[in-house]
Amino acid sequence: MKEQAEIGVFGGSGLYSLLERERDVKVDTPFGAPSDKVALGEIAGRRVAFLARHGRTHDYPPHAINYRANLWAMSQLGVSRIIGPCAAGSLRAEVKPGHFVVCDQLVDRTTGRKDTFFDGHITTHVSFAHPYCSQLRPLAISAVKDAGITCHERGTVVTIQGPRFSTLAESRWFASNNWEVINMTQYPEAYLARELEMCYVNISLITDYDAGLEGQPGIEPVTHEAVIQVFQANNERVKQVIYTMIERMPKTRDCACGSALQGARI
Ligand SMILES: [Zn+2]
């Protein structure tokens, strides 16, 4: 397939379209079908591919997403950089609903997800010490700040299996590790991008306080309705951030993502 896009965007809950003039392509992969058709178009003269992570009508809950097909489809279209915004809960009082966090670390608490392309006889151990792209993170931080949104320049996201939310005890445990953000889709999405040597950056859009925060009456446990309400309010703001990032994105990569597989084979 000839190169059709350079930058990929995964839309999370509430973000089901991005491009104004687009054409949809259906991409087949050896791992099955992606969550939906991929929309192709342009932003600021750059070719962009957009895929709704859960499908446009939200057909796939986090644990049922075919992450390998989604990432493979982007790679097949020629994408080398991915912007992956997502709805997320906060584990800390100072990280408030409406704030954006550009995460720098990730903890995987999922189970049973298909999380590698290297299932076969070639043993490949890929470094994931630094899960997010060193070139795209500063770009995301400045775009969030320039949009007038409160930005946390780093944070650890713990990815839980879902679809259920956390118990109070789980939430307390996550918070006691000084992790800031909780979500259901960052793993294996961010990791599979690394296996395909694509850059990946996350912007966590805080919608709620996970299971509520201890000792802070008035901060209620999360409900699905509350998440959707705040995410919809964030929708235009995150689009603006993505547009700014694409406008400013350098043409060449100066990070290590493009050579992630060097020395990884055994
Ligand atoms: Zn990179």
Entry keywords:
24% helix; 266 residues; 11-stranded mixed β-sheet; Rossmann fold; globular; 11 strands; alpha/beta; 22% strand; binds zinc ion
Could you explain how this protein is built, in words?
Helix content is 24%, strand content 22%. The two termini are 30 Å apart. The protein has a single domain, classed as Rossmann fold (3-Layer(aba) Sandwich), CATH 3.40.50.1580. The protein contains 5 helices and 11 strands; from the N terminus they run E-E-E-E-H-E-E-E-H-E-E-H-E-H-E-H. It has 266 residues and is α/β, with parallel strands linked by helices. Helix 1 (67-76) packs parallel to helix 4 and helix 2 (136-146) packs across helix 5 (224-248). The chain has helices at residues 67-76, 136-146, 168-176, 186-195, 224-248; strands at 7-11, 23-25, 38-43, 46-52, 81-90, 100-101, 105-109, 151-152, 156-160, 181-183, 199-209. It binds zinc ion (ZN). The site of zinc ion has 7 residues, from loops.
